[in-house]
Design a protein that fits this description.
Layout: E1 3-10, H1 14-25, E2 30-34, H2 57-70, E3 74-77, E4 80-83, E5 88-91, E6 96-104, E7 108-111, H3 118-121, E8 126-127, H4 130-133, E9 142-145, H5 148-153, E10 161-164, H6 172-180, E11 184-185, E12 190-195, E13 200-205, E14 209-212, E15 215-218, E16 221-224, H7 227-231, E17 255-257, H8 268-308
Parallel strand pairs: 1-2, 1-6, 2-3, 6-17, 8-15, 9-10, 9-15, 10-11
Antiparallel strand pairs: 4-5, 5-6, 7-16, 12-13, 13-14
């Protein structure tokens, strides 16, 4: 038998849990369905989140789940297989949840260049975000793999930055910008990493040339986990990303999205704020529906009383 909820949140990261917290405190019946594979699981710590700087990501989620549960929110460890147009949320384990509204906060996955060793060092000393990890590797020999904006950004954290174009063709202007910022350029194809003592020691180029580095910044390809939104028919923008308004409302009535699934640049603190904004908008949408229903009922009762005539 289907179970009825005001809102089913798909995804239990910062966006989904913060939305569920706000909704549960608003006395809405809310369920959070989470498959347990957060994008930032490999990271030891997260940064840039006021009052939570340096906290392990897993600890943030643990605290968040406890807070949601304390207000009556239901936490479901499962994967959503599909969502019907009438908002029946079918879980891989066979359970079905009926929702008045749906919030999808399923995040994204990172695709890295096909270079041996990158995944093994990912979120350790192969990094993607200077604002998340730059301070921890400050003043050390840093490398940048093929992403120009990272190459121009990283001199803020270290005076020893090497840019590896790899298979990226740099224009004369781009080379000039890097050199002007004090960035060295190491041409040639990157073939692997040199690791010793469970730490990155260098970047290997074709011809077995090794450039000593202590950390390597890589710009991954961000792939949104938006299959559920696509299945519901949500409109996308020119880049193929699901389009939302500032509250996370999609083109499909009753469907919201928040966090990295719609904004690849959102950090943990940003995603949490997006979840809060979506929750408040979701609640307002539910209230509007309830008001309309209450007015219709009130009018019907008033008309029925008038047709019956005055009481004697």
């Amino acid at each position: 038998m289907d179970e009825q909820f005001d809102v089913v949140v798909v995804g239990g990261g910062a966006a989904g849990l913060n939305a569920a917290l706000v909704l549960a405190r608003a006395r809405r019946r809310v369920a959070v369905v989470d498959a347990g594979d957060p994008r930032n699981a490999p990271a030891a710590h997260m940064h840039g989140f006021l009052s939570r700087d340096g906290m392990p990501p897993a600890q943030l989620l643990e605290v968040g789940r406890a807070e949601v549960a304390a207000y009556g929110g239901e936490l479901v460890a499962d994967r959503v297989a599909r969502i019907d147009e009438g908002f029946t949320v079918h879980l891989a384990g066979g359970r079905a949840l009926r929702a008045r509204r749906v919030l999808v906060a399923t995040g994204l996955r990172d695709e890295l260049p096909d270079i041996p060793g990158l995944w093994e060092r990912w979120a350790r000393d192969v990094l993607h975000c200077p604002f998340c990890h730059g301070y921890e590797v400050r003043d050390r020999p840093l490398g940048v793999l093929g992403t120009l904006h990272l190459g121009l950004l990283l001199p803020q954290w270290s005076g020893d930055v090497v840019f590896f174009p790899h298979r990226t063709a740099l224009s004369a202007d781009e080379r000039e910008q890097l050199v002007a910022r004090g960035v060295h350029i190491a041409d040639g194809e990157v073939t692997g990493l040199v690791v010793d003592g469970d730490a990155l020691r260098g970047v290997e180029l074709a011809g077995e040339r090794v450039v000593p580095r202590a950390a390597l910044f890589v710009g991954p390809r961000f792939v949104p986990r938006d299959e559920l939104l696509a299945g519901l028919g949500c409109a996308t923008d020119a880049d193929g990303r699901v389009r939302t308004d500032p509250t996370g409302r999609t083109s499909v009535p009753g469907v919201w999205a928040a966090g990295n699934v719609v904004d690849p640049r959102a950090q943990v603190v940003t995603a949490a704020g997006m979840g809060s904004a979506a929750a408040i908008a979701l609640n307002a949408d539910l209230v509007q529906e309830e008001v309309q229903r209450a007015v219709a009922t009130h009018r019907g009762e008033t008309e029925a009383a008038g047709a019956a005539g005055p009481a004697t």
